[in-house]
């Protein structure tokens, strides 16, 4: 399914601060943006229309505007007529440049929003690309909790009522940060990167059975919540099964696949007396060590094997 958003939604999104002003073409603010790439139409303003990325947002920098300004009026009209034969979502003119009158006229006539900003072209393209890649990234909603533990995004999974929220609450009380409770929105924003976000409806709220809905930000302060985190570890909580053989050495590296990306997974059995929050903290710190090249279980196993060989 192709994701879409409108030009109006992009302008009004406070996460994208490009200081955009609408010069004309207000009738086209509901034009759909369907591509996460942007286009610098340098070849198009030179008259070469083949492979023109018309479905993308068109960013006009100093080069494009200067070239249009150096053309005769007749040449400008011909170039712009050729460009506006395509369906274009919007134009963004950077560097607070003076916009050619012909471009304004064509934008009005074709109901294409013409946007203006004082920001440099490089900054506009960088911020816009970063924003669109996130907006159009493949995403999925997962039932679970997401916490940031010592800088590591930990996804807590398990059956309903297993104690995910209670574990997350204790982690927050211990100084960690809640990202999402109950519903975790996950986006694949890079070749190997998963970002987790809270549901827009729930955000920093949490449901605790017997207590109800609580607002963690109001209770613990703004430092106890986070709006997003990279997911680096999944922890599956399950009831202790005496017939199951659980990993006691940590040499078997399990993974879980989300949106085509595999992340490490740890299964933690629940039993009276076990402090799951502390175990989750240690698991997160151990994951940080692994990323730094320090695999404690393997190091211990190698030392043990060497000792056994000597003996």
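^ Assign residues to that structure.
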């Amino acid at each position: 399914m192709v994701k879409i958003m409108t030009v109006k939604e992009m302008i009004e999104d406070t996460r994208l601060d490009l200081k955009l002003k609408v010069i004309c073409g207000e009738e086209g603010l509901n034009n759909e943006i369907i591509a996460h790439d942007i286009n610098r139409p340098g070849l198009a303003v030179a008259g070469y229309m083949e492979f023109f990325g018309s479905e993308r947002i068109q960013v006009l920098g100093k080069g494009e505007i200067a070239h249009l300004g150096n053309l005769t009026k007749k040449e400008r009209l011909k170039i712009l007529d050729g460009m506006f034969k395509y369906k274009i979502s919007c134009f963004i003119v950077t560097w607070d440049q003076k916009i050619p009158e012909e471009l304004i006229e064509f934008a009005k006539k074709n109901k294409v929003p013409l946007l203006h900003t004082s920001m440099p072209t490089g900054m506009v393209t960088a911020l816009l690309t970063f924003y669109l890649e996130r907006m159009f990234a493949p995403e999925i909603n997962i039932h679970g909790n997401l916490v940031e533990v010592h800088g590591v995004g930990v996804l807590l999974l398990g059956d309903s009522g297993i104690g995910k929220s209670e574990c997350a609450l204790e982690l927050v009380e211990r100084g960690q940060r809640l990202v999402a409770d109950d519903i975790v929105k996950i986006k694949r924003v890079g070749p190997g990167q998963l970002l987790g976000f809270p549901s827009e409806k729930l955000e920093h709220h949490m449901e605790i059975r017997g207590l109800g809905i609580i607002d963690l930000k109001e209770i613990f302060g703004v430092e106890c919540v986070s709006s997003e985190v990279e997911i680096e570890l999944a922890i599956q909580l399950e009831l202790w099964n005496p017939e199951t053989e659980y990993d006691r050495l940590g040499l078997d590296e399990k993974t879980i696949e989300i949106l085509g990306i595999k992340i490490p997974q740890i299964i933690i059995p629940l039993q009276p007396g076990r402090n799951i929050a502390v175990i989750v903290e240690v698991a997160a710190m151990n994951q940080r060590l692994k990323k730094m090249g320090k695999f404690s279980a393997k190091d211990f196993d190698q030392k043990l094997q060497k000792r056994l060989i000597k003996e």
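The longest strand covers residues 229-239.
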